Amino acid sequence: MHEPVSHLLFISPDANKSNPIGIYLENEGYHISHVKDGSLGLKMMRAGKFDLILINILLPNVDGFEVLKQVRQSHVTPVILLSDKDEEFERVYGLELGADDYVARPLSHRELLARIRARLRREEYATNQLLQPFINAGRLSLDTSARTLALDHKLLNLTDAEFGIAEILIMNKGQVVSKHEISRFVFKRPLVDYDRSIDMHLSNLRKKLAHYDGNDLLRTIRGSGYMLVQKWV
User: Fold this and answer.
1) What distance in Å separates the CA atoms of residue 126 and residue 113, rounded to the nearest whole number?
2) Angle between the 109-130 and 20-27 helix axes, to the nearest 10 degrees?
3) CA atoms within 13 A on the CB side of 148
4) Would you give the DSSP letter of residue 147?
5) Structural domains of the chain in order of their starting residue, each with its CATH number
6) 228 beta partners
7) Residues of the chain with pLDDT > 70: what percent?
8) CA end-to-end span of the chain
9) Residue of 61, 62, 72, 152 lying closest to 53 (CA atoms)
10) Is the pLDDT reported for residue 106 higher than 80?
C-alpha cells in the first residue's frame, strides 16, 4: 500500500512547471501546485488542502509577509519562507508572523528538501503523539486521556491552558516551539498581536514545575519561542 503523496503549494514569481525547485521536489515524490503571485496563492490556499506552503517574500500584488499573515488567520498549515537575502530582520519578522522556517537564497535544493522533510515529520510525529495516551519525557509523564502531568511521579495541578502548553512542548522535546504554534495547538486560533496570555500561562507552568525542583525544564528562546530542555529528556 502506497503512502499518500504530500501536496505542497509553491508561491513565487518564478514558480512554474520548469522551475528547478519545483522539478527537484516533484522528482523527490511531492505534488506541487505553482502560483506566481500572492493574491492567487491565497485563493488557491483557501480552496485546497496542502501539507506545506512555500512562500517567496518578494511577490507581486501581495508580498510574502502579507500572504503569511492571512494564511495564519485561518490555517495551521506549515509554512517555509523563501528570501533572496539572509537578513535577521526578515528572518525574525517572518517567524514572529507564524512561519515555521526561513530559507535564504541561493539555497541548496538538498537543504530545502531536508527542511521540508523535517517539518512534515514533525507534523506527523505530533499527530501520532496525540493518539498515544501516555507520553514520557525524562522526569515528566503526561497522560493525554486524563489530561494530567506528573514530575517525578508527583501530580501537578494544571489549568487546561497550562496542560496544553506542556503537551506541545513535550511532543516537541528538545525543539523550539513558537508562540504561533502554541496558540494554534492550545487555543485553536492564530496568535493575536500583543497577546501576552501564553507568557502568563507558561510563567504559571514554570512556577508549578519549580515547586518540585523542575525550574530548569523549560527555556525561553528569545525571538523564537520555548523549549523543553533536551538534557532533561
Assistant:
1) 20
2) 50
3) 7
4) T
5) 7-127 (3.40.50.2300), 132-232 (1.10.10.10)
6) 218
7) 93
8) 35
9) 72
10) no
**pTM score > 0.85 for this model?**
no
What single string gives the DSSP state of each residue in 173-218? TTS-B-HHHHIIIIISSPPPTT--HHHHHHHHHHHHHHTTT-TTSE
Task: Name 153's bridge partners.
Answer: none
At residue 51 the predicted structure's pLDDT band, cuts being 50, 70 and 90, is: very high
Q: Is the pLDDT of residue 1 over 60?
A: no
State how far Cα 63 lies from the chain centre: 21
The total of other beta-carbon atoms located within 10 Å of residue 34's CB is 19
Specify the pLDDT at position 139. Answer: 87
Each residue's pLDDT tens digit, 129-167: 555 678 888 888 888 888 899 998 899 999 999 999 999
> Can you list the positions of beta strands (E) in the chain?
7-11, 31-35, 52-56, 79-83, 101-104, 134-137, 140-143, 148-151, 154-156, 218-221, 225-228
- What's the residue count for the chain? 233
pLDDT at 231: 57
pLDDT on residue 63: 92
If phi > 0 it is left, if psi is from -120 to 50 it is alpha, else beta; for residue 187 that is alpha
Q: Mean of the pLDDT values across residues 88-98?
A: 85
Residue 73 has a CB neighbour count (10 Å cut-off) of: 10
